[in-house]
Amino acid sequence: MGFRCGIVGLPNVGKSTLFNALTETQAAQAANYPFCTIEPNVGQVGVPDPRLDKLAEIAGSAKIIPTQLSFVDIAGLVRGASKGEGLGNQFLGNIREVDAIVHVLRCFENDDIQHVDERVDPIADAETVETELLLSDLESLEKRVPAAQKKATQGDKESKIVASVLGQALELLREGKPARLTQPKDEDEERVFRQAQLLTAKPVLYVCNVEEEAAAEGNAFSARVFEKAKAEGATAVIVSAAIESELVGMDIEERMVFLEEMGLHETGLARIIRAGYELLSLLTFFTVGPKEARAWTVHKGAKAPDAAGEIHSDMQRGFIRAETIAYDDYVALNGEAGAKEGGKLRQEGKEYVVHDGDVMHFKFNV
Length: 366
Description:
The protein is an alpha/beta fold and 366 residues long. It has helices at 15-23, 50-59, 88-95, 122-153, 157-174, 187-195, 220-232, 241-247, 252-261, 268-279, 304-311, 313-317, 327-332, 336-341; strands at residues 4-8, 41-46, 63-65, 68-73, 100-106, 204-209, 235-239, 282-288, 292-299, 319-325, 346-348, 359-364. The protein has a six-stranded mixed β-sheet with strand order 2-4-1-5-6-7, with helices on both faces. Helix 7 (220-232) links the parallel strand 6 and strand 7. The protein is flat, with a radius of gyration of 23 Å. The chain starts with a strand and ends with a strand. 38% of the residues are buried. Residues 26-38 have low confidence and may be disordered.
């Protein structure tokens, strides 16, 4: 499954530079003027996971296939976007299609790079974008909720659900709060809330784009962003888009040497992925064999048939059982045969909740 992240922010904060570096392409035109990204660029990257390499080594797998993460580079939002200013609603629509918002904030000073508001203030930048998302949601719900309330009084069951959960979201928006604070009380309300695709319901990851010298510890600007994230129960990471750009084209050994010289232990991509997985409550399971070792992604709490469905819908429909080995047991006992001999290969049924790192083989019949 992986997940789809929309990269947003004001113009000239480093969004396209970061996108190009993360996806190791030049698909997005990075230029020193607003609206250089006219259409949303989408890039897919393999999620790095050293466990997958180890499993492939033990099993002698011919191919290694990581799970995929999609980044969507969405053009810079400006004040008034919800009313069509700049390139407006076109881009608000693109944000609706993503699982999470990666909000890039400029946390560096550079007189050669123009800021749309002629100042460096990541908190003000964040509030500008958040306000536009909130206003867009507010406009949407102020049309939908009254219509649902009217139908609800006529006895329409679905409209009662819509009026209840989206009415709660509308009240939050009117108070200047994001819709993600809405608390659906049952599965039906959860379904309606999810289908509404509200912009402020998306989980947010703040990315502090700092200068190279601050990549390890951050700076005064990023410290303020981390305070904001903590107060909101959100997540923040420090990344230097300039460093990520320099890593493009280096082999693994060169990268590690370069990162060490910069006082870093991992790439910005790895930080974003780890934070994103935590933000969306995701975990990884594996399928391993002589042909390929492959990583798959499911939400925490997913059961074995859900995991089977990530591979193929027929596997979920005809699920019988899942032969399961914990990653540590697979490695310690040198593969499936050793795990089976050591009593660590388990037969799990439909109610089994998948654990991060599970190595699974599904039995099914359709």
